[in-house]
Design brief:
The complex is a heterodimer of chains A (71) and B (435).
Chain A (H helix, E strand, L loop, with lengths): L3 E7 L9 H5 L4 E3 L5 E3 L9 H10 L5 E7 L1
Antiparallel strand pairs in A: 1-4, 2-3
Chain B lengths: L31 H8 L6 H11 L11 H9 L7 E5 L9 H8 L1 H15 L3 E7 L3 H13 L7 E6 L8 H9 L24 E5 H18 L10 E7 L5 E6 L4 H5 L3 H5 L1 E6 L5 E3 L1 H6 L4 H6 L8 E6 L4 H14 L6 H19 L7 H11 L7 H15 L1 H10 L12 H13 L1
Parallel strand pairs in B: 1-2, 1-4, 2-3, 5-9
Antiparallel strand pairs in B: 5-6, 7-8, 7-9
Classes of the chains: A alpha+beta (71), B alpha/beta (435).
């Protein structure tokens, strides 16, 4: 039986390091020393899906995506 | 499609010399008649050919080592739109020459492979993507085939720009779609196989891989597996930078890498490290190199990659830190400048390595360099930063003593002012002309 999980993916070309995502989802996203997001690869569990969706919607560059992955 | 060929079924070569059969150091004849006399015509096509490629265990020779049959099947099933097939001969790695040699020696093997791919996938367009220098030989070969009405599809040529990333799969697609420069795009969410050239499903396959396809279509999977090992079947082309200028050899997979590259134990004793896979590859020590077999898995275990088959030996009297700093500066300049972490990170990495190599004692330590490697690794749209991180990490391992010596004394015992790797020469020239 395969299972689906949610994961955050950043499009590094679209991203210009505004950092809004890290404010919206600090539990999973930190900024590197140049201001670009580093996403913790862990699964987006149901408890934080709302926060993840908010981070995705708030990106002014639409550079962050919430994707389903089969695992 | 019909061509009169005497002896339709040719005998298959028995040794490890396949793609380079007929190459003797003298002038080579890339003509169609020589090709047909040597190889005859393809027997297998379509779905049967794909199954045969699967049975042969053929993988891509552009550097990614991806199974060819899997790739073809995913393009074939991607959508109902007819795909585009591309023979990628960009060979943008400065230390690699094998694709250029293959195109000048056996262009018809490459074109056979491309036409077989187009046929098997029902493609509506077949394009050969090569640097300007290789266009004449490809043009002549296409002309010969057209005159004899050999192919059911018209083969087009496109020029690959002279840039390190020009051969990267999504950069090829962007160049051929005509909307953007030959720079990568972010394809993690929509793969090239589904949406490539002008939005069509696209197969981008290295020219050497297509030449292997042409031979498997003639002689089959069992023949392909006659050399090599069950896990590493067949042969691969290597560009060996060890005895002066680059030499191309056809190596049997699974055999001794040292013997395949013709590097003697004495030459190895005078080397401080060996670079595998080019500037996005990795360094191994002479001892490790001596025990390696021609296998991507083995190279990966040793912290490197065979990539597109580059082997470069660094002599003991050349400063490895200067060499590394120059290559990283070159790679930074060759970045597309699209992704923040790669853009900032490679610049910082090049600055730091230059301080270590040229800046006197008390410069940055290796921990500082490794920290930047970790910050760039895996954070670009393409694998450019990952390759540079591997190049630097493996180099700091193999040349740990020299790095420590630079930190302590500002230099190592290797003081020859000559740069060995081709990219390094390019960078030095620029630095000199800027000064």
């Amino acid at each position: 039986m395969s299972r689906w999980t949610l994961e955050l993916v950043i499009d590094p070309i679209a991203c210009d390091g505004r950092g809004v995502c890290a404010e919206m989802l600090p539990e999973r996203i930190e900024l590197d020393r140049w201001g670009f997001p580093i996403v913790d690869g862990a699964e987006i569990v149901p408890a934080i899906v709302d926060h993840a969706v908010r981070a995705v919607r708030s990106c002014p560059r639409q550079a962050i995506h919430l994707v389903e992955r089969r695992c | 499609m019909s061509v009169t060929v005497r002896n339709e079924v040719k005998e298959a070569p028995t040794g490890g010399r396949r793609l380079l059969l007929g190459l003797s150091g003298g002038p080579t004849d890339p003509g169609l008649q020589t090709h047909l006399d040597r190889w005859g015509e393809s027997r297998l096509r379509g779905v049967r050919l794909i199954d045969e490629l699967d049975g042969a265990g053929l993988v891509g020779h552009g550097g990614a080592w991806f199974p060819v049959a899997t790739k073809w099947r995913s393009v074939a099933s991607a959508s109902r739109r007819r795909p585009v097939v591309v023979a990628n001969g960009a060979e943008s790695e400065p230390a690699s020459r094998k694709d250029a040699l293959l195109l000048s020696h056996a262009p018809h093997l490459v074109l056979d492979g491309l036409v077989l791919a187009a046929d098997a996938l029902g493609a509506h367009q077949a394009i050969v993507y090569v640097p300007a220098a290789n266009i004449p030989v490809v043009e002549a070969a296409i002309g010969e085939r057209r005159a004899r009405r050999l192919d059911p599809i018209a083969i087009e040529i496109a020029e690959a720009p002279d840039a390190f990333l020009a051969g990267q799969e999504s950069a090829v697609v962007n160049a051929l779609s005509g909307r953007r420069d030959a720079v990568p795009s972010f394809v993690a969410l929509t793969p090239i196989r589904e949406r490539g050239v002008v939005g069509r499903p696209t197969l981008v396959q290295n020219v050497e891989t297509l030449a292997h396809v042409a031979l498997i279509a003639r002689f089959g999977a069992t023949w392909f597996r006659q050399v090599g090992t069950p896990e590493n079947p067949g042969t691969m082309l290597l560009t060996v930078n060890a005895h002066g200028g680059p030499e191309i050899v056809e190596a049997v997979l699974g055999s001794s890498l040292r013997l395949a590259t013709g590097i003697s134990t004495e030459e190895l004793a005078h080397a401080s490290g060996i670079l595998l896979g080019g500037y996005g590859g990795g360094w191994v020590s002479p001892n490790v190199f001596g025990d390696l077999v021609v296998s991507e898995k083995a190279a990966r275990r040793a912290g490197a990659t065979l990539g597109a088959g580059v082997v470069a030996l660094l002599p003991r009297d050349v400063c490895p830190l200067a060499e590394m700093a120059d290559v990283v500066r070159y790679m930074q300049g060759q970045g597309a400048g699209q992704c923040g972490p790669c853009d900032h990170g490679l610049a910082e990495l090049a600055d730091t390595l230059e301080r270590v190599a040229y800046g006197g004692s008390g410069g940055p330590g290796t921990d500082r360099i490794l920290e930047i490697c970790n910050l760039v690794d895996g954070r670009g749209a393409c694998r450019h930063p990952d390759g540079v991180a591997r190049f630097v990490r493996s180099g700091l391992g193999v040349f740990a003593d020299e790095a420590a010596s630079h930190q302590r004394r500002g230099h190592c015992s290797q003081t020859r002012a000559v740069r060995m790797l081709p990219a390094a020469k390019i960078v030095r020239r620029r630095l000199v002309s800027r000064a």
